[in-house]
Write the structure tokens for this entry.
Amino acid sequence: MAGKIVLVVGGGGREHALCMELNRSKHVAELHCSPGNAGTSQLATNHSISASDIDGLLHLAQKIAADLVVVGPEAPLCASLADRLELLEIPCFGPVARLANLEGSKLHAKQVMRAANVPTAAFHVLSHESQIDAALDDFAGNPWVVKRDVLAGGKGVVVTSDREEAREFIQSSLRSDGQVLLEDFLPGEEASMLVVMDGSGYVCLPASQDHKRAFDGDEGPNTGGMGAYCPAPVVTDEIRQRTIETIIEPMHQYLLSSGTPYRGVLYVGLMIPESGKPNVVEFNVRFGDPECQITLPLLKTDVFEVLDAAASDRLSQLDVEFHNSFATTVVLAAEGYPQKPVKGRLIHGLAEGVLESDGAKAWVNHAGTDFDDSGQLISTGGRVLSCSALAPTLDASVKLAYQLIESIDLEGSHYRNDIAFRAL
Ligand code: AMP
Ligand code: GLY
């Protein structure tokens, strides 16, 4: 099946990682990315259509005669990009809007988990201020977890031991959204399980762990993710098996029974308590960013074959294999990220391509980058890039990723020094 034309939608580190792997595929003849970044421009043809312009993307997919559209972010999926590609008979990796609502609405996700008997935190749905006190009392004794029921780009959740802060976030969410979730606090360690799914089956990718807080020691504000590693040893074989039995299998069955198959990747955010019985913290309907950057390189099977099979319900015919290695990525964030990132600064010291030595390799994943009018590399986002490495041991991959990031110069930038510390 040589000579395939693939369009990747999105422009962050995740999409650069998708382009890197697709570029290596023996099946892909033409790679396009929209809107992409400086990194994707070196692997694919970048187009200037934003990921929110659904009509524009449909037109582009037709114009380039795409054989496969791979959707990076959730927003276009929630806005029916996959539904409309299906009408045009263009295979799409990414679920239809009704299923993407697992990420679009946290309340919907909770209702699905309840219906599928999948373990998750108990919760209240509040729609009136008069319900606040009783609900806060019900979950007193632990921090309160308040979740807005909207796509909030990672800013819709507050976890706090301060009752007044919880109350104020509930009140402001009620005013803006009409309802809000209050969840029971789950203690434990988090991990991300990415599961490629279609109507024929599913493939669990090796579990990873992200670091969501901005600063070392899990301090500071929540971010999109400051670094990740894979596989995460916290997900032992036993926990992985239990996750499959109690979460993945029932979710797959549930999604099968609901009409259109889920074709894409289901991101299962896990909380693993000391008992080892995993709970679901959240679902996302896309690859995690930066989890994608360190999970895809562990695939031994051609990534196009995996994504293309899932887009057309042929996953169960594929024998997906993985490398027996570890991958780590460390995010370089702009000054002021996550509150107010400074953009438009020059980036120096970037290594070109993939550096290989002694069975290990290292590379830079671009995220918020572009070339200015004079062709110089500049920052354009909060998470600017991440330095990634693959090695036979976790320790070696961490060292290599840090070696790479130390050589990069971006005024005011910061990164965490303790990626993978829980596992080392
Ligand atoms: P979410 O957007 O639902 O993933 O929530 C963002 C973050 O809040 C998660 O990554 C967890 O660190 C934390 N969180 C969410 N729900 C809970 C919960 N029920 N118990 C403890 N922490 C939670
Ligand atoms: N890294 C977390 C996410 O992609 O949602």
About this structure: The longest strand covers residues 189-197. DSSP finds 13 helices and 23 strands in the chain.
